[in-house]
Specification:
By secondary structure, the chain is α/β, with parallel strands linked by helices. It has helices at residues 18-29, 64-85, 95-104, 116-119, 122-135, 147-155, 173-179, 186-189, 209-222, 237-246, 263-267, 283-290, 304-308, 335-347, 349-363, 368-372; strands at residues 5-11, 34-40, 52-55, 89-93, 109-112, 141-144, 164-166, 196-200, 227-231, 253-257, 271-274, 295-298, 322-323, 328-330.
Length: 385
């Protein structure tokens, strides 16, 4: 019997987040031919997983000076793990993980979850872009979450096209649809007796929720009983709470935090809105679509257009409200057009129903069993990668 392939995932945590959910889904669904080890920076876990769990005991830090020092400590600990575990493959997620993997491992497989040029800001983001320019091509394989990110890796960062693969994020459709049927507790259920606009994700600058709040303010003028539900948490929650008060919508905005089962909330809502300034391939959009929910998204780089308008050029950006094949796209940071799209879905029942049906059909393309097949190189000879 052939010896199982040893796969090591390198990621900061398994606590919330899109990349974290991808590692969770992959570990749960890989066949027995793959022996999975998940190596974390620190042991923070909210997603289920299958396989061994190790941690380096060195968390990420927002402190400017500690950030570089902690990276070096993690790097040398990571090299020790590689020496001990001798994995056949190491797949890394996130900037620091990709840097460590490339520098320590000649057969590094790196996962690009966000377009490098769009998502990296400030001093450390600048350093990562410099690193990517000179070192990303050294990876054995660069797995990109979108076509846009893949083209960027080739055209802007010099990665040979033969090393680049586009592999979309997997979605466990059966689990989502099963969990969406679970009941809500009475106090929360009352919110969904009203027309609910829902969004989900970390409350950060990237997600652009302030534009959604201002667009929702306009909605309230025509639909007074509308509610806005935010699933997730983050460093800007207090700022958004103040904005809600300034806009006088605080009694209709509900911060429900991170939910173990967000799908029962999604299934009871009228429309899902993603207002992000940048993305990779937004899992939350796919999860809402799997629940049969009509979706509206900013046409940010990258992912939403590839999901909602796959027949169009991934480099195209919406200049007005665009009713795409599987949802609605609006320009980034355009609250008036976002409000217009929300109003259309909330007031045109037949249109919303048809859009929800199409969204649910499109989500099927991202079924976990279909995406797992794109990882079939794990079952072959690594030297053929």
């Amino acid at each position: 019997m052939e010896k199982p392939r040893k796969l090591l995932f390198l990621i900061a945590t398994l606590y919330q987040g899109g990349g974290e959910r991808v590692v969770s889904e992959l570990s749960l669904n890989f066949p027995s031919e793959v022996e999975t080890t998940i190596l974390l920076y620190e042991r923070k876990v909210s997603y289920p997983f299958k396989g061994r769990l190790l941690d380096l005991g060195v968390p990420l830090s927002l402190n400017f000076f500690l950030r570089g020092f902690y990276f070096l400590v993690r790097f040398f600990k990571f090299k020790e793990v590689l020496k001990k575990e001798q994995p056949d493959y190491v797949v890394s997620f996130g900037n620091s993980g990709n840097m460590m993997n490339i520098l320590a491992n000649p057969k590094a497989i790196v996962r690009i979850d966000l377009p490098i040029g769009e998502s990296n800001k400030g001093f450390w983001g600048f350093l990562y872009k410099v690193f990517a320019k000179f070192f990303l091509r050294r990876a054995k394989m660069v797995m990109c979450v979108s076509k846009f990110a893949a083209e960027e890796a080739v055209e802007r960062f010099g990665v040979p096209r033969g090393k680049v693969r586009v592999v979309y994020n997997p979605v466990d459709i059966n689990k989502i649809q099963r969990l969406s049927q679970e009941p809500l507790q009475a106090p929360l259920e009352e919110i969904f007796e009203h027309p609910v606009v829902i969004t989900m994700g970390r409350i950060t600058k990237q997600k652009g929720q302030q534009y959604l709040f201002r667009a929702f303010k306009s909605i309230k003028e025509s639909i007074p009983d509308a509610k806005l539900v935010i699933l997730g948490s983050g460093e800007l929650q207090n700022d958004l709470s103040r904005l809600a008060k300034d806009l006088r919508i605080e009694h209709d905005v509900h911060f429900l935090g991170w939910q173990k089962n967000p799908f029962s909330f999604l299934a009871r809502s009228r429309v899902f809105v993603l207002s992000s300034l940048w993305e990779g391939l937004p899992d939350v959009l796919l999860e809402a679509m799997a629940c049969g929910l009509p979706v509206i998204s900013s046409d940010c780089r990258s992912g939403p257009r590839e999901i909602l308008a796959p027949a169009t050029d991934s480099n195209k950006t919406a200049e007005d409200m665009e009713i795409a094949e599987y949802g609605i796209l609006v320009p980034v940071a355009q609250e008036e057009l976002l409000s217009k799209a929300m109003m259309l879905v909330l007031t045109d029942t037949n249109f919303a129903y048809e859009l929800g049906k199409k969204a649910k059909k499109r989500a099927e393309d991202f079924r976990v069993d279909k995406i797992i097949k794109q990882w079939n190189f794990l079952f072959g000879d690594i030297d053929r990668i």
